[in-house]
From TrEMBL:
The keyword Isomerase does not apply. It comes from Prauserella halophila. It is found in: Membrane. This is DMT family transporter. Residues 298-314 have a biased composition (Low complexity).
Length: 348
């Protein structure tokens, strides 16, 4: 029960905080370019995590783990965020980007079988397809745009980069803590985005309280919260699970935009919200016959798990040991001696 509540809490936190990134991007790009916004976002994240590490940790990090998280940062932060934010700057509507990003659960489910051996049932496939339809309903009023044709490839590349990063995290396990992992990823992202901002001459931030409020929003909620919950869910669950939860981010963002910016919610959006919620419930159902064994295997990886702890007794109980005969008790021995003495010995 405790594990289920923890997983549910992580899922809710992930959806809410991951959705905050779209709100923060809307606030920030209204005041500065995407290069400036991303550069200062990760500069602040790196400074805060670096101060924490110097104060409380200050230990030598294994070179392999540094390389692993540098790769993850390149895929899940640099690749994903640059594609999404740059496409928005070029005029791709947010709804179109959200719909393209919603292909991720289907791509992840299709690849998780051959790459990780994670089985996807027919019911889960139905949920994934319904979820894509629900996202299409949510963003149906925002699917037209006048951006250049190549700009629409950026959200697709961003989605594929996030999928690749999620698979890399599953195939390249690390023993670093979550804050240390985020420190390495954020440091690499800061170097990349500051270099881009410097190359384009957009390093200097606007000196306005609204810009720094947007930076604080993105640092605290979207990076520490969104990416922290993302990796926590990915470490505890499957690639398909963390990807499927992304279906709930467009309708969550829709409701947040209503509350914060007064953006109207259409009937199609509400219908898409209901469809997305039902689709996620279907897609997160464990295949019949494997959920119990997977839960037991997950428990055994963290604590010693006796082989007969939760199994039913065998047909013959107590079990018989055929390899070594059991010693006879004194009652059995005395009874056998009485029976032998009561019968005359046969004569040769």
């Amino acid at each position: 029960m405790g594990t289920s509540r923890t997983d549910a809490g992580l899922a809710v936190g992930f959806v809410l905080l991951w959705s905050s990134g779209f709100i923060g991007a809307t606030m920030g790009t209204a005041l500065a370019s995407s290069a400036t916004l991303l550069a200062w976002r990760f500069a602040v994240v790196t400074a805060l995590l670096g101060l924490w590490w110097l104060t409380f940790r200050r230990r030598r990090l294994p070179l392999r783990d540094v390389g692993v998280h540098a790769l993850l940062g390149l895929l899940t932060q640099v690749g994903y965020l640059s594609g999404v934010v740059w496409s928005a700057e070029l005029g791709v509507p947010a709804g179109t980007s959200a719909l393209i990003a919603a292909l991720q659960p289907i791509v992840a489910a299709a690849l998780s079988g051959p790459l990780l051996g994670e089985r996807t049932s027919a019911t889960q496939w139905l949920g994934l397809v319904l979820g894509l339809g629900g996202v299409a309903l949510v963003v149906s009023g925002d699917l037209a745009g006048s951006a250049p044709a190549l700009a629409y490839a950026l959200p697709l590349l961003a989605m594929l980069s996030l999928v690749a990063g999620t698979f890399a995290q599953r195939r390249l396990p690390s023993h670093l803590s979550l804050p240390e992992s985020l420190l390495i990823q954020a440091a690499l992202s800061a170097v990349v985005f500051l270099s881009v901002a410097g190359f384009t001459g957009e390093t200097a931030p606007p000196m306005s309280g609204e810009f720094w409020f947007a930076i604080a929003w993105l640092v605290v909620l979207s990076t520490f919260g969104g990416y922290g919950f993302y990796w926590a869910v990915a470490r505890r669950g499957s690639v398909r699970r963390v990807s499927t939860l992304l279906y709930l981010t467009p309708p969550t963002t829709m409701l947040a935009a209503l509350l914060m910016f007064g953006e109207p919610v259409t009937a199609e959006g509400l219908a898409g919200l209901v469809v997305c919620f039902g689709a996620v419930l279907l897609a997160l159902r464990s295949p019949r016959g494997t959920s119990r064994s997977r839960a037991k295997m997950a428990t055994c990886t963290s604590t010693p798990c006796p082989s007969t702890a939760s199994s039913a007794p065998p047909a013959s109980w107590p079990p018989r040991d055929h390899a070594r005969p059991k010693p006879r008790s004194w009652r059995t021995s005395s009874t056998a001696r009485r029976r032998t003495s009561s019968h005359p010995r046969s004569r040769s």
